[in-house]
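Q: Focus on the chain.
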Amino acid sequence: MDVGSVTGQETRRTTWSEVTIIALAVLNALAAFAGAWGLVSGALELSPEAEARLPLASPVLGGLTLALFVGVPNLLLAWLTLLRHPLAALGAVVVGVGMIGWILVELAFIRELSFFHPLYVVVGALMIVAGRRGLRPS
């Protein structure tokens, strides 16, 4: 029996965009919070040159900023998408643009390229694509 027929609500299948947004947002949030913990706790060490280029030369501030500007928005996006909130698709575009912006700002500060920088630019671009697909009328 269809749950929608019992509750009187229309049911619909989860879209590719929703699955992609949820998966990327959850993975991004976990990675951001893990990186933030690593920076704050000292478990993740930057080169002395990169650390000196951080605002106030503080890995703690860098970790808190990472959690606030990357972890929290991705966690909120995953939650909105799970709830099928009308702003979830637009949120994916905003978070994707924010992720790319974060990488550009990070590169401007630390001036060291790692494997993760192009990876997260691609992840941000995928979020933008998934969000734009979700913005299209069905």
Observations:
- Helices lie at 3-7, 16-41, 48-53, 59-82, 88-110, 116-135.
- Confidence is low (pLDDT under 50) at residues 1-6.
